[in-house]
Design goal:
With about 850 residues, the protein is of the alpha+beta class. The chain is built from 32 helices and 31 strands. Among the domains are: about 110 residues, no CATH class; about 100 residues, Serine Threonine Protein Phosphatase 5, Tetratricopeptide repeat; about 80 residues, no CATH class. The protein has a 4-stranded antiparallel β-sheet, covered by helices on one side. Strands 2-3-4-5 form a 4-stranded antiparallel β-sheet, covered by helices on one side. Strands 6-7-8-9 form a 4-stranded antiparallel β-sheet, with no helix packed on it. Helix 21 packs across helix 22. The chain starts with a helix and ends with a strand. The N terminus is likely disordered.
């Protein structure tokens, strides 16, 4: 039964407690596999006692005294019959070319794997440990140590003989030794020592904590993390020691180096082996319950933990219970943990089984995520590390995710993932579309279908459009707007829409969609008809985009009724395509629309529609009187007699006044203002605009017997007509409203005019005086005369080369200089000279300001 169970376990390849993994939500840090092939055959008839690991191969020692060299897959490549009893330890140098072996019967062999030459010796007592110098292959480092009841150093001298030196003895059996660089660490019954090979000194002694444990049953585990950091595990205690250099001032008679314990803590179980993993520790535990409450199977199952060391404690990162072969029969001393420094490989050695633990890679991470149904995270991990994954494919993971979402009826999320997962695989796309059709969820996937350079067959898109047309008109319209017309057979969809319109002919959504389909099919006239029928806002965009002006010549009224402003702007912007005359003819029966068009035309250009200005007079009078007067003012082409006739017929006083004044009949215009409007302010304003004395006389004559008019004239006439003329003509005894205020205003205005004149005079005088002073200062400044100046008449240097000779120079205010003899005669005014240059240019003559003589 035991063999059958064992075979089942081997076939399953499971080494961790499955129930723990299934219940845990934390991802394991390591994965496990059994080292098989040649190892399985070896351990069927023998048992493993020790093993050492090199980057290129493995060396396995057995209880029957044999040493096997194995490749990484566990195939035996070489076999050495060393002894008939247990091999205690195997040591390799860094090159992997030399091996050291010791056995329980006292045999020690150190030789080259390719030469078999070296050290072969037998001792009277068991040799428990052996360690080669890491650089043993070099001629200068032919050293190794062995340990039984004492630690011996063997070193080959220049005579090619081995010289022996006792490094330590007297503290019981040496149970473990590790050599790193120049440091040798070993363990005996009392503790751990470190020997500095470079200084030939022992530098520390780390005592064993729990002395009650038998060293042979619970041996010490040693592991160098780097050249100066040693990890010690003994019983349930772990210590991390760092070798440091001692300061020169502290040396005295002490070694150059010392050891500092940077971390020390207790564990729950017994330690069988240690190995570093970055800044963490991999620890192999032998599980044994002191209370004996565990059953036999659980008590003997070894555990491999990853822990984070702290100064006085540790934090568990992960923990795996291992099911190695015949673990029920093993003790703590039967397990060993070896690691490969080149790779994160950890070998758990037991007498009948060897298990390899590896750091989980990205494929393993994805496996775990998929097992936990964390598809989103698995897909993201695969996309990030797609170059590094070997067993997985991004698309297959994505398909698994889509299947999972569909099973959970999250169809929208599944459809959204299709866009990312299916990519350019058209076959997969079509399969998914048909799957969504079978489950009645075409709407979910419709918005994510390819619609760019890569496209599905037209039948796929048509199938979806037909599905929407049966159940969702709005969704159908959205797809027609979003999908390019080239994706499907446009005619087939048009026919389908027309069939539905026969059942529902007034459906605006279907009509709008049909217009869009006609647009895609370049049947713009039909699309335009539908848009105009629906009064759709896109009708103007359709006309502009496809230049449909020839199609709207008979539809101008419809466009105007829909949106006057947009229609007029479009017509005016495209006069070269639809002439003004054509528009006027079309709008002839709709004068209100014609007025809107001609009004905007006139606003843009006063001359373009000049032949319609006569007609516009009546249109303004009928539909837009506020703009009639501005039109009459700005137009130079409308007939004044016709305009006057229309305005008089409709009794438009203000417009009639303007026309009369423009035709030169200002008296009649003023009469209408005074008689029909009775607005003295407008009459005064009109008289001011015309600035005609006869009009003022008529205004005064008309107002002289009307007190309110006299008041208005008194308040406003002062700046244009002498108020005395009006005052003298006022009849005695006539009561005039606010006469006193009006007279006060006249006097105030007169006084204000006087003050303004005086102020202007003062400013003028002050400015004149300031400018005169400035000119005087300018003319009084000195003028520099040197060798660089020339005479403006003879163009020779103004100053003579010999300054000792007499000379005479004249300098004018304009800065022109002359020799005195070069100047013409002074003219009619004796003693007064003028600059010839400035006089010729009419810039005003200047008199000489300086005459230099010597």
């Amino acid at each position: 039964m035991a063999e059958v169970e064992e075979q089942e376990r081997q076939q399953s390849g499971e080494f961790t407690d499955e129930s723990e993994e299934e219940d845990s939500e934390e991802e394991p840090k390591l994965k496990y596999e059994r080292l098989s092939n040649g190892v399985s055959e070896i351990l069927q008839s023998d048992a493993a006692s020790c093993m050492t690991v090199h980057d290129k191969f493995l060396a396995l020692g057995t209880h029957f005294g044999k040493v096997f060299l194995l490749d990484i897959q566990g195939n035996a490549t070489q076999k050495y019959d060393v002894s008939s009893v247990k091999i205690n330890q195997i040591s390799l140098d860094e090159s992997g070319e030399n091996v050291g072996i010791c056995s329980e019967d006292g045999k020690v062999q150190v030789f080259g794997l390719y030469t078999r030459e070296g050290f072969h010796e037998s001792f009277d007592c068991p040799v428990k440990v052996v360690a080669l110098h890491p650089q043993f292959s070099r001629s200068n480092y032919k050293q190794f140590v062995t340990g039984g009841n004492k630690l011996l150093l063997y070193e080959k001298n220049w005579l090619n003989r081995w010289k022996t030196q006792v490094l330590h003895e007297g503290e019981g059996t040496i149970t473990n030794v590790k050599w790193r660089a120049n440091l040798i660490a070993w363990a005996n019954n009392l503790g751990v020592k470190i020997y500095d090979f470079s200084t030939k000194q022992r530098i520390t002694n780390v005592l064993r904590d729990n002395v009650s444990l038998r060293p042979d049953m619970y041996p010490c585990s040693l592991c160098w993390k780097d050249d100066t950091t040693l990890i010690i595990g003994w019983g349930t205690s772990i210590k991390i020691c760092v070798v440091k250099e001692r300061k020169p001032t502290e040396m005295r008679d002490l070694p150059n180096r010392y050891v500092e314990i940077v971390s020390a803590f207790e564990t729950e179980f017994f330690i069988c082996g240690l190995a570093p993993l970055a800044d963490q520790l991999v620890t192999l535990f032998f599980v044994q319950d002191p209370t004996n409450q565990m059953d036999e199977e659980d008590r003997a199952r070894p555990r491999l933990d990853i822990i984070q060391a702290l100064p006085e404690s540790c934090e568990e990162i992960s923990s795996d219970a291992l099911s190695v072969r015949f673990y029920q029969d093993n003790e703590c001393r039967d397990y060993r943990l070896e690691h490969s420094e080149g790779e994160s490989l950890f070998y758990i050695i037991s007498p009948k089984d060897i298990v390899v633990a590896k750091e989980r890679d990205q494929d393993d991470h994805i496996d775990w995520l998929l097992a936990k149904k964390k598809y989103e995270e698995a897909l993201m991990a695969a996309e990030i590390s797609f170059k590094n994954i070997k067993r997985h494919d991004v698309q297959r993971i994505g398909m698994s995710y889509i299947n999972h979402l569909v099973e959970n009826r999250d169809f929208n999320a599944a459809a959204r993932k299709c866009q990312k997962v299916l990519g350019k695989n058209m076959e997969l796309w079509e399969n998914e579309v048909y799957r969504f059709k079978n489950i009645g969820q075409l709407k979910a996937i419709s918005q994510y279908l390819p619609r760019g350079d890569l496209r599905l067959r037209p039948a796929i898109y048509e199938m979806i459009l037909h599905d929407f047309l049966k159940t969702d008109y709005e969704g159908f319209a959205t797809l027609i707007r979003e999908w390019p017309g080239e994706l499907y057979n446009n005619m087939a969809i048009v026919q389908a829409v027309n069939d539905h319109l026969k059942k529902d002919p007034t459906n605006n959504t279907l009509l709008t969609t049909l217009a869009e389909l006609y647009t895609y099919d370049q049947r713009y006239d039909r699309a335009l008809e539908i848009y105009l029928r629906l009064r759709h806002k896109d009708v103007y965009q359709l006309i502009h985009r496809h230049n449909l002006f020839s199609s709207i010549e008979d539809k101008i009224v419809l466009l105007m009724e829909f949106d006057k402003e947009k229609a007029v702007d479009m017509l005016l912007d495209n006069e070269d395509k639809i002439s003004i005359d054509k528009v006027v003819v079309e709008l002839d029966g709709r004068p209100e629309l014609l007025h809107v068009y001609l009004h905007k035309l006139f606003k843009r250009d006063h001359h373009k529609g000049q032949k319609y200005h006569e007609r516009q007079i009546g249109l303004y009078a009928e539909y837009d009187r506020p703009n009639l007067l501005p039109f009459l003012r700005d137009s130079t082409h409308c007939p004044l007699e016709k305009a006057l006739e229309i305005c008089q017929q409709r009794n438009f006083v203000e417009e009639t006044v303007f026309l009369l004044s423009r035709m030169g009949n200002c008296r009649r215009a003023l009469q209408m203002i005074m008689e029909e409007q009775e607005d003295v302010d407008k009459a005064i304003e009109f008289a001011k605009e015309q600035d005609d004395a006869e009009l003022w006389e008529d205004l005064i004559s008309y107002s002289i017997d009307k007190p309110p008019f006299i008041t208005g004239l008194l308040n406003n006439i002062g700046t244009h007509v002498d108020p005395i003329l009006l005052i003298k003509r006022i009849k005695e005894g006539m009561e005039i409203p606010n006469l006193r205020d009006s007279l006060v205003k006249i006097l105030h205005d007169y006084n204000l005019q006087i003050l303004l004149r005086e102020g202007c005079k003062k400013i003028l005088v002050a400015d004149s005086l300031s400018l005169l002073k400035k000119m005087h200062r300018t003319q009084m400044r000195g003028v520099r005369v040197d060798e660089g100046n020339i005479c403006e008449s003879c163009h020779s240097t103004i100053l003579p080369s010999d300054m000792a000779q007499p000379f005479s120079v004249v300098v004018f205010h304009c800065r022109h200089m002359f020799h005195k003899e070069c100047l013409p005669s002074s003219g009619t005014i004796p003693g007064l000279q003028f600059c010839n240059i400035c006089s010729a240019k009419r810039r005003g003559p200047g008199s000489g300001i300086l005459e230099m003589k010597k």
